[in-house]
Amino acid sequence: MIEFTLNGKTQRVDVDPDMPLLWLLRDELKLTGTKFGCGVASCGACTVHIDGEATRSCQALVGDLDGAAVTTIEAIDSPAAQAIQAAWVELQVPQCGYCQSGQIMSASALLTETPRPTDDDIDAAMEGNLCRCATYARIRKAIHRAAEIMEA
Amino acid sequence: MLHYLNSKLPAPQPTRRTFLKLSAGAVGGLLIGTVVPHRSVAQSASMGDGIATPFVHITPDNRVVVISKHLDKGQGAATGLATLVAEELDAAVEQVEAEHAPSNPEVYANLLFGVQGTGGSTAMANSFDQYRQAGATARAMLVNAAAAEWGVPAGEISVANGVVSGGGNSASFGELAAKAAMQEPPAEVTLKSPDQWVYIGNHFPRVELAQKTRGSVGLFGMDAQPDNCLIAVTARSPRFGATLASMDAADALAIDGVEAVLQIPQGVAVLAANTWTAMQGREALALEWEDGSGETRGTDEILADFRALIDEPGLPSNPRGDAAAKLAEAAQVIEAEYVFPYLAHAPMEPLDMTVLYDGQSATFWGGSQIQTIDHGTAAGVLGLEFPQVAINTRWGGGSFGRRATPDAHLTAETAMIGKAWLDAGNAARPIKLVYAREDDIKGGYYRPMALHRVRAGLDADGNISGWEHRIVSQSIFTGTGFESFVVHNGVDHSTVEGIDDTTYAIPDLHVDVHHPQVGVPTLWWRSVGHTHTAYVMETMMDELAQAAGRDPVEFRLAYLGDDARLAGVLRLAAEKAGPTGPEGTHRGVAVHKSFNSYVAEVADVRIRDDGTLKVEKVTCGVDCGVPINPDNIVAQIEGGIGYGLSAVLREEITMTGGEVDQENYPDYEPLRITDMPEVEVHIVASTEAPTGIGEPGTPPIGPAVANAVFAATGQRLRDLPLTKHGLV
Q: Is this complex scored with an ipTM above 0.95?
């Protein structure tokens, strides 16, 4: 039995400790907002927050989560996350949208850490998140816009 | 992809108590002339007592639900259709939603295909009248209901922003929905004139966007999870066309949670309670394969075989004039050979399809892009009649052509797993077939490899004097249900599109083609043949301009006298880009027509100190007819450029001994945010019929970048990707 905090609530699970968090979330807990894209931490679609850090859930093993706090796209509500989501709508960022859970998780972690990110900060934080629709120009603008929303 | 199917069907005419009367030929003979009474369509049960027509539902709780016959896989088709309905309905933005239509080719055929399907950038082109008429008809029913309710002549009732008003009364659509549903649909409706448009040509936000910022819960096929659902992953042969020789599944079946190992024609499926366990089970299989008649060559050998053909005359494709004679008398001849690799689509959502099959009926969930073919194939595999199969189309997590499968291989494989599960004596359960990324990258259905050889002449005055162009590439369409539309006299037009039909005034142009047999499955990839033909045409035009000592824009314009729209976007992009790009950049230009849309791109490219390139800015001119939703046009051009640039920079599928060398994003790495240029899009305010926008942004970016690299380095780039040239 492994116990951790998931989206603000205590979660106890009895699964193989080697199971990646991604599959625990999606298949066992039916939280499908976190997406499967590559399984090798190359695309970022599965990004969640573990103790506030943007983390690829396909590489985070359930057995290592004891006592951790995990937040998924379904439950983010920090000021940074809300600003990111508002900016994403304002600038009409998503196309297919499949990668956008991960993009938003990475971007909101960035903004929490760095409220006024530079383009270089954005490159560093977002380079691990692929978008095959190439919404990158709008992602960049929307992160800057979210920073403005947070300051206002 | 399927823009070739331009034998237009009659536009649907609303008639008394009907919305559609279509008589359409179809792939597989699935269609007959059919009349669909209104309120008879599936899904209406959940809509309460409101209006439930095939294309729009209006509910008592004041929602306008547009029924999208087209798969929205990010290109914005659902919002485009919603824009058309909302325009004629005078709905408010906030009340408009969209959902995918059930699979029913009698109602939801793409009017350019004759079957229900999405592709070839045809969604708006074939729906422009149909969905506006649907909106106008629903509006008339609301107005007539209000007239009866209020005792006010219909002519004195107005509708604006979701509110019906007249004679001092006003009501929401929802308040009128039940009574409106009892109104006879009018025999004829008058559509707005363009000067009356509120949304078309302005802005309509994407209908599903808020969901896509909160996890897209319930949208994608990959997220379908009917109760008690099993996950299936399939072990497929490492070489295309090989077959299973032997299997030992004992270790897989010993894994806790593995429910079954099922042999199917495509390979061996492992079924488990969750994806991770299914993948572990697959790893534990001991399988041996027989090559048989499968492909055992590597891409180097295949290319060598292509080169052996390039000296031999191929099948001619619309030759004009006498290219050989003009080349013989040319003052100079430029000869060049181009190599384009196989490319994977690699949409972010790997392929998936879910089925529940109980022996009597089957229901599928997934991002079906040609529903009619998927539907008919599923019925065939399962031995069911067409009405015993239902396909619930989910939003697609990207496609770029990959989900439009003319052999319905994904649906067929899913159906075979469902059948094998039942045949093994199990109780019916939903089963979701999941592709891992490795299955996607290694799984074929690639943009075909292509070899081009061009000989183009210039006369003493620097004018084009003869152009010979030979292409060796697999045919995509041969053997599909669409073959007769696209393959003529042995030539698959998708291989030569953009060359033999170029509107450059080149009077002596000889194009010919070889279509060798290769055992690698190929498929249309965003903009299909234009992915390589535009590259060759536009880098060669640049090379000719340079050899003639002329400005590349002026040189092209001199040959575009017969194509005012292509010339128009070229002038527009060149003007908006200004005389120079950002400091330290070099400039390249390309212009190309595809899917009846016209796009010019001016790329400003920096060569960094380490010799690698960065595309800093792309300035675009776009003419796609009436710009229905300008922001989506901008988005699709941005995305089309990103997708095309990704391929040019790094993408390449190679094979060794018949086995694909790449397997996942680390070795098939798409564009990242650090590679993305600034994109500036200028749209022509056209009044022509709307044309495609999902694909036309892709073809010009490769040659524009290559021409900029030439401007910077003097190097011509004739084989892709640019990783081969130390530029990435």
A: yes
